Automatic annotation (TrEMBL), chain A:
It comes from the Bacteria. This is YwgA family protein. It comes from Salimicrobium halophilum.
Automatic annotation (TrEMBL), chain B:
PROSITE patterns: HD (PS51831). It comes from the Bacteria. This is HD domain-containing protein. The lineage of its organism: Bacteria, Bacillati, Bacillota, Bacilli, Bacillales. Signal peptide: none annotated. It comes from Salimicrobium halophilum. GO terms for biological process: dGTP catabolic process. Residues 61-177 form the HD domain.
Length: 166, 435
């Protein structure tokens, strides 16, 4: 029952908290592309890969009390913080999902800005293309973000570091 | 005259119950409609298993695709000569609108889950592979199929073009809400589309709505909300969907265990093995699937046979509300009791959640999460819809999740009255007595 929810609880159990829905979306996508068996379906959106399935699953887990959501008002928008609850921990302890240790990778992503995670996830979305075409795509679909070549270099290195996760 | 500019001598029209007429003048559009890959959409229902709940819901993805094309055609008539709109993108928009669902397979939601497929990948393959559609698009221009594929994949450089086909207020949603309401016969789902089309304005990288059109957009958002709960996530439809998934899982499991089917399921073999080619994918439409289900009713495997009989003859599972947190122990107990009752719980007990059928409610979201609907104010500033609309704000914060437990009540009823297992199962499902 709720195996896909349990996988996400395992994700939250591997970190203290995740701040920001955009960050959460991109982190799960990056892990998925690095071989972690998350089953949420992603599509490309205005801000890069986005999963409605993930959004809804998070909402369900909040409503069931497995995850806590705290909303903070920022200048022109709201920001959300997510944490696994005791009920979530209890549910997770009874599930038999088989996922690798994620803590180191999640900590690594949590140290990065959501702008950077948007870049990495967008590069991974186009991973079926040759490297130069991926970079061309980034400058096309993310023209407003004005990513610098050194940011792309850093993103390539980051992807290399993340790959052993699977 | 270049093929891309060729017009039919006389305008062709398709009579349509939602938009009255779908108008076609471009030769390219006419040729695409006639292609075998587009005609295949006649054999894929728009709403999958919903016809088992709302008997009118037999309309196809073919109807819907024509509808989306027609809406985009009307939007572009309104955009002509407006700032930010590049008329050279017109044919690209029309093609993307017409072809956006080209890769949908039979009962695509369940198929994709069980066989780990993505219809978007097949849409790309049809557009870029050895197909009639590809030949027509290539005739327009060498790189044209790729452009159409990029628009549908939402990775095209001009985001305004993408947002017409796919955004929080796009032609796709505006068509399916009205069409699904019409064919299911429900009174929700209706909104003033003509008004919305009149107040849509092109901006640099998105479509926005003039503030004066806010109430028409409120109606559209409300209809999305109501259609979800009344039609798309109807619990009886979900029951049919649960059984459909179980059939596919069972057939796949039998195949992997070298079960001898009476009729070799040739159309399914590549799906069971996890890698259908484009040709194999396109060969499996809903008519073929239903033929196999009818055939499998006579299979020796009692589970496959029973599940197919249930689906074909609409002998669906019953359901109760279920809270996976508060009823975790009951779930475990039920699982064991079903085993004792000789009902394989992997096939006869299922918790179905709202996230199993993701449907994008309108959410203003967090900054940078996804693009919201923007209203264009008289001073030319943009404001997110829920900041100006109390109605939208109030439904944006509503609890929208739901979990149900599905089971074969008829099988339980057939168990002997004095069966202790039966009494314990009914006790958990219904309280003390069966209802």
């Amino acid at each position: 029952m709720l195996e896909n929810h349990a996988k996400l609880m395992h994700f939250f159990a591997s970190c203290d908290e995740v701040v920001g829905r955009k960050r959460l979306q991109k982190m799960v996508y990056i892990m998925k592309k690095c071989g972690v068996n998350f089953e949420e379906r992603y599509e490309f959106h205005f801000y890069g890969p986005y999963s409605e399935e993930l959004t809804l699953r998070i909402e369900e887990m909040c409503n069931l009390g497995f995850i806590s959501e705290a909303m903070e008002e920022k200048k022109n928008y709201y920001q959300y913080r997510y944490k696994l609850t005791d009920a979530g921990n209890d549910f997770l302890s009874h599930s038999d999902i088989d996922l690798p240790e994620l803590k180191g990778y999640i900590d690594g992503m949590n140290e990065k800005s959501s702008r950077f995670l948007e870049l990495v996830s967008t590069m991974l979305f186009f991973e079926h293309l040759p490297k130069d075409e991926i970079e061309e795509k980034i400058y096309t679909v993310k023209s407003k973000q004005n990513y610098k070549p050194e940011e792309l270099e850093e993103a390539w290195a980051f992807i290399q570091e993340m790959r052993p996760v699977s | 005259m270049a093929y891309r500019d060729e017009k039919l001598e006389e305008e062709k029209v398709f009579k349509d119950p939602v938009h009255r007429y779908v108008h076609v003048r471009d030769r390219v559009i006419w040729d695409l409609i006639g292609s075998r890959e587009f005609q295949r959409l006649r054999r894929v229902k728009q709403l999958g298993t919903t016809y088992l709940t709302f008997h009118g819901a037999e309309h196809s993805r073919f109807n819907h695709s024509l509808g989306v094309y027609e809406i985009v055609r009307r939007i572009l008539e309104n955009f002509r000569d407006r700032e930010h709109w590049n008329e050279e993108e017109r044919l690209l928009c029309l093609c993307a609108a017409l072809l956006h669902d080209l890769g949908h397979g039979p009962f695509s939601h369940s198929f994709e889950k069980v066989f780990k497929l993505d219809h978007e990948d097949f849409t790309q393959e049809i557009l870029l592979g050895d197909t009639e559609v590809n030949r027509i698009l290539t005739h327009v221009e060498e790189g044209f199929p790729k452009k159409v594929a990029d628009v549908i994949n939402k990775t095209y450089s001009d985001k305004l073009v993408v947002s017409l086909i796919s955004s929080q207020i796009d032609a796709d949603r505006m068509d399916y809400l009205q069409r699904d309401a019409y064919f299911t016969g429900v009174s929700y789902g209706h909104f003033d589309m003509e008004r919305i089309l009149r107040v849509m304005r092109p901006m640099e990288d998105q479509v926005v709505i003039k503030e004066s059109g806010m109430h028409a957009v409120e109606d559209y958002i409300m209809s999305r909300y109501q259609m979800y709960w009344q039609v798309y996530f109807h619990p009886v439809t979900r029951s049919a969907e649960v059984i459909l998934s179980k059939i596919l899982h069972r057939a796949k499991e039998l195949y992997q265990n070298h079960y001898e089917f009476k009729l070799k399921p040739v159309h399914f073999l590549s799906f069971f093995e996890g890698s259908p080619t484009l040709k194999e994918y396109l060969a499996l439409d809903e008519n073929v699937v239903m033929y196999y289900f009818q055939t499998w009713m006579d299979e020796d495997d009692p589970i496959l046979s029973d599940l197919c009989e249930r689906f074909v003859n609409r002998r669906l599972f019953k359901y109760i509300e279920f809270n996976p947190n508060l009823q975790m122990n009951e779930w475990r107990e039920l699982y064991e009791l079903f085993r004792e009752a000789d009902l394989n719980p992997r096939y006869y007990l299922e918790v179905d959640s709202s996230s199993d059928l993701p449907y994008d409610f309108y959410r203003p979201g967090e900054e940078g999460e996804r693009l919201p609907i923007h209203l264009l104010q008289p001073n030319k500033e943009l404001k997110e819809l829920s900041r100006l609309s109390d109605i939208v704000e109030s439904i944006s914060g509503k609890k929208r999740t739901d979990h149900k437990l599905y089971f074969p009540a008829d099988e339980l009823r057939r168990m002997p009255e004095d069966s202790e297992v039966k009494q314990r199962i009914l006790g958990i499902l219904y309280g003390k007595e069966e209802q």
